[in-house]
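User: Can you write out an input/output pair for a complex, sequences first and structure second?

Assistant: Here is one pair. Inputs:
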Amino acid sequence: AQSVAQPEDQVNVAEGNPLTVKCTYSVSGNPYLFWYVQYPNRGLQFLLKYITGDNLVKGSYGFEAEFNKSQTSFHLKKPSALVSDSALYFCAVRDVSGGYQKVTFGTGTKLQVIP
Amino acid sequence: DGGITQSPKYLFRKEGQNVTLSCEQNLNHDAMYWYRQDPGQGLRLIYYSQIVNDFQKGDIAEGYSVSREKKESFPLTVTSAQKNPTAFYLCASSPHTTSNQPQHFGDGTRLSIL
């Protein structure tokens, strides 16, 4: 069975400081990994994904994530946080081993950027 | 612009009533999904459909039903058997269920009990 852990319910960071939102995963095969952002009363918006290749993935709005196979992690990062980045962030994983594999979502991390 | 439309945005259910949530997509995606979101629990899969006229139960299908008569549409019915229906419901789609492409989400329907 696959799983995703987001160990922090909330992350607070000052505007202009770097931010990190943590994600670890467990799959039996190779993973597809995704980050999404959700604003209040809205659906999830896709930020970035890791499929294969370069371990550092760049996505929308200046976000990036680093795939670390040995630590089974896929932490989301941004060099300089904006107040508008305040939202709920979800990490998700799909095991790529054949056939239908559902996407498993983490429980979400609320990011609060303090002016 | 292509996307997913969910309606209504807010819905209230009376005791013993079935209610239906609408989900329409114009992305030409084969796969569609319904998720339930509760605070602190992330997204839980209710049902998914890989193709027209086919759908499968997800992790929490009890008390829910779906149909997939058209590629564009995947309505969810919350039946009276679902005793705790208050939640935020999200519909999503992807090109197909084995795709490495992300899921596209609608803006959700918030269901409450009257």
